[in-house]
Amino acid sequence: MALSFDRHRRLRTSPAMRNLVREFHVRKEDLIYPLFVVEGTGVKNEISSMPGVYQFSLDRLHEELDEIVALGIQSVLMFGIPDEKDACGSQGYAEEGIVQKAIRQIKETHPQLVVVADTCLCEYTDHGHCGVIHNHDVDNDESLELLAKTAVSQARAGADIIAPSNMMDGFVIAIRQALDEAGFTNIPIMSYAVKYASAYYGPFREAAESTPQFGDRKTYQMDPANAREGLREAASDIAEGADFLIVKPGLAYMDMVHRLREKFDVPMVVYNVSAEYSMVKAAALNGWIDEERIVMETMVGFKRAGADLIITYHAKDVAKWLGGN
Predict the structure, then answer these.
(1) Which helix (H) or strand (E) holds 301?
(2) Contacts of 208 (CB under 8 A, 6+ apart)
(3) Mind listing the pLDDT tens digit for each residue in 138-188?
(4) Catalytic residues, which ones?
(5) Is the pLDDT of residue 18 over 90?
(6) Considering Cα of 251, then 256, then 260, then 262, what sign does the dihedral take?
(7) What pTM, to 2 d.p., does this model score?
(8) Which of 299, 146, 122 is nearest to 201 (CA)?
(9) What is the gyration radius of the CA atoms in the chain, in angstroms?
(10) How many CB atoms lie within 10 A of CB 109?
């Protein structure tokens, strides 16, 4: 008796056939590579928990930038570690702050790069929280004033995109208003709209030297168990003027990327965070996994979930694997 069924395998018969019908693609243009800059000279410190990722002083930053450009990566995300920290994170909005100096240097030497400035205070405060502290809690509205000052100083230095990551209520509208009043109406905001209080940030806190000195960030970053709340957060940011939406972390929150993609039409960004990177690197160094296949499968997964752009510490490796594609 003849059987009647679908022949799905017809489209999988060869590499060329599979390439022909592939639905999602990762491009170099999709990648945003995080950079960590520090004060001093001659500094290239590898982050112990993030093999292949470094802190650079400004006099050695060109080494990384030259490689990034040569690989075809077009966008970088800037984090800075100052020499001195204080209660209000004043080096975050100082005209001669480390990130401001780095942005000016990048725009002078590699003007074709899109420079995204992470806008937060945790790297600059002596307590490690993302705003001003009163009674052991972050004061939301007072923090907005400093975050707005930080955004304007970063735009004045030459940042192409402002990416506020602090998760204060109203941070998008406060920054949008400040940018507009300062004449930066064309600078877009890439909001960390859906940022969870995650255990996946551990290695980053070593890289950015931003571990909280007391408590945690659960009163302002989201509960990992909540999804509908993320949609509310994103809707608020869109209404306040966000031009991009970020979901952070990535792997454990691909459902949120998909939920936001289904609801909003702005460019969607996923942050493939530090522990996600470190776990892959550790397994690869032990010979337990095929690093290239694992990473590229993850990148395609982000795209399939709905991400347009991917912030990832794997960016240089991905660009190498993509080659001339």
Answers:
(1) helix 291-305
(2) 36, 79, 81, 122, 123
(3) 788 888 999 999 999 999 999 999 999 888 889 999 999 999 999 999 999
(4) 195, 248
(5) yes
(6) positive
(7) 0.94
(8) 122
(9) 20
(10) 13
